[in-house]
Amino acid sequence: MSDSLVIIPTYNEKENIEKIVRKVFSLAQPFHVLIIDDGSPDGTADIVKALQQEYDGHLFIEERSGKLGLGTAYIHGFKWALDHGYAYIFEMDADFSHNPDDLIRLRHACLPTAGNADVAVGSRYVKGVNVVNWPMGRVLMSYFASMYVRFITRITIQDATAGFKCFRREVLETIPLDKIRFVGYAFQIEMKFTAIKYGFTVVEVPIIFTDRTEGVSKMSTRIFREAFFGVIQMKISSWFRNYRRAIKSSESQLTAPQRST
């Protein structure tokens, strides 16, 4: 039995899904994998179901009808993970932009006997800019988006939009998941911001992000607009919200010093 669950949302990932699943299960640290598939018409779910015969009790799938958004997929997965007793819950993309080998480093950052963080973020920007195969325009958009988030929210996370993360279960038990409002990449910002506001320790672990080589990116201008305007809405809403578990008094103190593992 593993104490660690990797949640992978999918929509039309038939080129990547088998390879990413096999890679995670090849790691020295045992992980379980939960696929949240949003009705992929390309047969992604069928590939996962076939693999379940090989990885019985380790690979799971939750199928949803229609493309319901990244944020709702992860919220669905978080609730499933909590219901099934996992101690460490991970977010990871299916397309190998996140290196599965780094799962071990993220988990290490959250172990009480090691980094003792509450949330570990696989960060592209904590040590320079570590992005491979992205066009310069997208690199600049992502980098300056994180600067914009830091300016508005006053948190110090260098990679605010990162989607490669490890949560200790206490974080997801504390955050009212049904009140997380964003569904696109703003969801990633909101989860970090909310964890920090509740007084949890968030650290950044440097990674190298490699753009997908197979399949199609799900980024859109609608997702970007949600993130841009949503950050302001999120900040204003936080003024009227009671973060009962917050343990530090000022926003400038809420983010722990960056650590690497």
UniProtKB/TrEMBL annotation:
What does the entry give for GO biological process?
glycolipid biosynthetic process
**GO cellular component terms listed in the entry, alphabetical order:** membrane
Per the record, the similarity remark reads:
Belongs to the glycosyltransferase 2 family.
Q: Which SUPFAM superfamilies match?
A: Nucleotide-diphospho-sugar transferases (SSF53448)
Q: Could you tell me the keywords of this UniProt record?
A: Glycosyltransferase, Transferase
Q: Which residues cross the membrane?
A: none
Does this entry carry the keyword Glycosyltransferase? yes
Question: InterPro entries from the xrefs?
Answer: DPM1-like, Glyco_trans_2-like, Nucleotide-diphossugar_trans
Q: Which PANTHER family match?
A: DOLICHOL-PHOSPHATE MANNOSYLTRANSFERASE SUBUNIT 1
Domain (Glycosyltransferase 2-like) spans: 6-174
Fetch the Gene3D superfamilies from UniProt: Spore Coat Polysaccharide Biosynthesis Protein SpsA, Chain A
Which protein, by its recorded name, is this?
A: Dolichyl-phosphate beta-D-mannosyltransferase
Q: Which Pfam families match?
A: Glycos_transf_2 (PF00535)
What GO molecular function terms would the record report? dolichyl-phosphate beta-D-mannosyltransferase activity
Tell me the organism: Pedobacter yulinensis
Q: Lineage from the top down?
A: Bacteria, Pseudomonadati, Bacteroidota, Sphingobacteriia, Sphingobacteriales
